[in-house]
Amino acid sequence: MDEKNITDLQPLLFNQLKNRAISKTNLVDTLSDLLNISNDAVYRRMRGEKRLDIDELSKICTHINISFDTLAGFRQSGLQFSYVPLALDNTEVYRQYMKHYLKVFSNLAKANEKEVFFAAIDIPMFHFLPFTELTLFKVFAWSNRTGAFAGNFGDFCNRMKDDELIGIYKELTTAYSEIPSVEIWTEGTFDAILRLIDYYFESGHFTSANEALLLCSQLLEMIERIKSWSNRGLKDDLSEQKVGYSLYLCGIELENNFVVTRQDGATTCLIKLYTINSMATTNPDFCNESMKWISNAIQKSTLISGGAQKESFKFFNTLTQKVRYLIDRIERNKNPFGPLNPPY
After folding, report:
1. For the whole model, what pTM was predicted?
2. Angle of CA points 138, 252, 230, to nearest 5°
3. How far apart are CA 82 and CA 183, in angstroms?
4. DSSP-assigned letter for residue 308
5. Cα 137 to the chain's mean position, in Å?
6. How many angstroms separate the CA atoms of 4 and 323, rounded?
7. pLDDT digit string, tens, across residues 308-333
8. pLDDT value at position 170?
């Protein structure tokens, strides 16, 4: 990128920053720390008296999760995605990945205007996070399928779980509780986790039935937590603000596994990959098309949160019965898998 292009992008970049910042003073302090320059040097760049160099431009774009192409408003057939590789043969890689996720959603929670939309082929990760073992089971299943870990679930927990990771989970849980959200589920959204527990119990990856039963008990707690949010149409009031929660039930399968965030006028679309990972883009055309798809899916769905008592009771009662069915199968050790066609 030549100097003329950087000069053209500089005012666009600072306009983006000003729109997202809580205050001008906070913005200047943030940029001073990010670029390792004085506040006066930041002001010179904001006024256009000093040109950003390519390294400074890259750091700022990375910090606010926006690409050069998006900033310049380029229109082209290719898209630029950000992607953080996740190799679970190194536990520190997973911690760094979760720290990155925490930074993204903590910034979203602090925004003046924010919202997140889920097209939930699988249960959104944030519902797992209050339950450490259940969260780690999802990670264990992914690492087992990719060959990163070949042992049993108990050994995996001993390897991964520590106070730092549990702290990250708690902070992410808090961040999500402060972000208004819309989730679109189907009748099969909940089934994926049941099939995983069933499969790994059957294949001998638990050291005892109690490990599988613990996951089931946490699933029941998860259902009660989501039901509470859904019945009120509000999340836990951790921030002393009423944070909206909308849950839709779609009668047809969702073709896409999207997460779309809106943050002070900026939109990002995350495409879920490999169960626990994702890639993200801020390309305006792609984000707009994704939101149109989500809006269309909402129109074909039933709102079961905020007062739809009959639909809500039926939906959550079905989820509870599916978990209890699995518990019954696990407890019958001699024939733990029961009928050939479980309800999930």
Report:
1. 0.75
2. 60
3. 23
4. -
5. 17
6. 61
7. 678 888 999 999 999 999 999 999 86
8. 95
